[in-house]
Amino acid sequence: MGERTAPAVESVDRAIRMLEVLGRHGSGASLDELATSLSLPKSSLHRTLAALRERGFATQREDGRYLLGPELLRIAFDFYGRLDVRVLLRPTLERLRSALNETIHLGVLDGPDVVYVDKLEPTQPIALSSKVGGRNPAHCTAVGKALLAWTYPTSERLLTWAAEHAPLAHPTARTIDRPDALAREMARIRTDGFAKDMEESESGVRCVAAPVFFGADGPVAAISISAPKERLPAARMREVVGSLLREIAATPGAARAVG
Amino acid sequence: MGERTAPAVESVDRAIRMLEVLGRHGSGASLDELATSLSLPKSSLHRTLAALRERGFATQREDGRYLLGPELLRIAFDFYGRLDVRVLLRPTLERLRSALNETIHLGVLDGPDVVYVDKLEPTQPIALSSKVGGRNPAHCTAVGKALLAWTYPTSERLLTWAAEHAPLAHPTARTIDRPDALAREMARIRTDGFAKDMEESESGVRCVAAPVFFGADGPVAAISISAPKERLPAARMREVVGSLLREIAATPGAARAVG
DNA sequence: AACAGCGTTCCGTCTGACGGAACGCGCGTG
DNA sequence: CACGCGCGTTCCGTCAGACGGAACGCTGTT
């Protein structure tokens, strides 16, 4: 992140920078707020803002202040609604499988559960009962915990979720089903950036998982890697987490936006 | 909507048109899908897409297809989150009050209720008990019905809402509290584009209301005009609805997006 | 091997973006 | 009431930089 090389199309680059500034002003930015924060002459700003206005990417209040336009919001919400996570993440999942040769899951949150929307199996056949379309309680799987940790980013909101879906299932002895313990686990996951499942949903199976965001506040889905615990001792687990986070970071748009 | 006049900045205009096309493709658009649907040479597309990519407004999958980028989503969600409806709509509310000299409310939905976030009173003092920050059951007020009709745009989803918040209050004899009747009322509101309250929350008081969208799928807020029923006979009601819809249409970004 | 279908790069032309300067309006001030 | 200030807006001569046709390179196909 140092000096930026010359933009491919200067006027487009400027327009985008304007949109970024406009986005930070929920009740409008004045022309020379824009001028100072972008160090551009007012005439240039004005011309570009006119172009943005024509397409509804900016609007102007009657007092002159400029706002982000409804068309930009419409496009974003619309695209977000039709985002096909499975198609988008297939190549990433495949790269993970060929790098690790383990079972890869892609899951989304649905109330108390995770729903698996995609699954890739390793070449070495392994008994894992999950299916695309299948469900598991969210709080005892790595995918589920990764999703919960960022969907309910405060302990308070997580506890509300837990209360709504109480009592939480406890399929194995290691399942974390006490709400307060779960809230602490989520805090840990948020600082680490990934979730683990240490035989919490199925005895003998460990998983790691991390969320994908695609620009949204909350995660759109989470990717997990599962294996029998003999194949996932602490050292390999660290390695696998590394691959997972690296592949997500390398997938266009998937990683968490910086803010 | 006929021929468009020359855009203020051609390259910016093109970039926006690209974003609109990209937004329609949830799993990516290829370079010459873009080329044909925009009738632009590939080299120009390529250059502009590079500019969009540099700022995260577009991304490219490893197979070459282009996607809307996470930064555009981030900006949109972020702006949407900090949208200050009160500031944005103040001028509109003031114009309505000076045109009609009646009580104007601005309300948002919160579970079973509407919460009033702004209120303007007419010069002729009138006994209306509502306060900024105050609440009313959504299903018996015009603001609430306008919000419900588009927040839960199908009968099925409305009935779910009704079931979650049953039993619905019935403050007056005219309150519509039967879920099926309410669902029919919502359908009527959606086709009309506005909601009425014929003494359904307070005896002797009529209101009309219409939603504001600001680019989102669902309404961000709704504006209502309330008056004693003697001041709102059928004829004046039509006139008032006309003013309301016209003012909303004239407020940058507020009206429902076409697409 | 030749081909077709893609994304990508090059580079000479000339359009159209650039920004300094001037304008017009509304507002508060001396 | 004249004045000046702080806005957004418009104008226009200059020349940077956007434009697009053509050629390239890669991959998978026949």
How would you summarize this macromolecular structure in one to three sentences?
Two copies of one chain form a homodimer. With 259 residues, chain A is α+β, with helices and mostly antiparallel strands.
Biggest interface, CB < 8 A: A-B, 61 and 63 residues
Strand ordering within the main sheet of chain A: 5-4-3-8-7-6
- Write down how many β-strands of chain A occur, each being a DSSP E stretch of 2 or more residues: 8
Please summarize the sheet with the most strands of chain A.
6 strands, antiparallel
- Poorly predicted spans of chain A: none
The N- to C-terminal Cα distance of chain A equals 15 Å
- What fraction of the residues of chain A are assigned to beta strands by DSSP? 15-25%
Oligomeric form: homodimer
Outline of chain A: elongated
Helix content of chain A: 40-55%
Briefly note the structural class of the backbone of chain A. Answer: alpha+beta
Cα Rg of chain A = 22 Å
| Count of separate DSSP helical elements of chain A | 9
Overall pLDDT of chain A, averaged? Answer: 87
Question: From N to C, what is the helix and strand string of chain A?
Answer: HHHEEHHEEEHHHEEEH
